[in-house]
Amino acid sequence: MKIRKLTLAALTTATLSVTLYVQAADGPHDDAIEARQALMKLQNYNVGLLFAMAKEKIPYDPDVAAEAANNLDALVNLGQSQLWPAGSDSATEGNATNRALPAIWETYPKIVEKSEALTSAVAALVPVAGNGLEAMQDAVGDVGGTCKSCHDDFREER
Ligand code: HEC
For the domain bounded by 28-154, which CATH number is listed? Predict the structure, then answer.
């Protein structure tokens, strides 16, 4: 009787771990997809602070502006070679929900130009972000334009 109970308990635990494992590893590219989305979110948060100041929704603070610009600079210079594996697009079955259009891979390396445009715009923002609202406004507008330009071509619309 005791042994039977033990067996049942062991089986239940085993079933549970298998279920958890399967949930954690749905598609082969899900970790990369989640990581690149997290990178985009961090970019979005930092550029969002600058946009809020640019639109005078929050007060312009040169230190916060400089920090956000430096954070953006670090983010756009991270290596991304492992974040966009072939087959991790929004049209392939079995991937975590994502909006990366197959055009990214079909027209490669076109997307690299878009990525370099962002890196350059951020490099121009860094030295002026803390130099007053007007200088920052122009530079952050250019950064936003490069985000949009890549999204227009390579991100699926909602
Ligand atoms: C070189 C192309 C490119 C550039 C430049 C780019 N993005 Fe993206 N972004 C994408 C793609 C592709 C996706 C969809 C990724 C996915 O769903 O896996 C995306 C997704 C996002 C998302 C949604 C993330 C999520 O949680 O699903 C946000 C927010 C975002 N981008 C913000 C930005 C901001 C802000 C910038 C500029 C500072 C920027 N992006 C620049 C290509 C780009």
Answer: 1.20.120.10
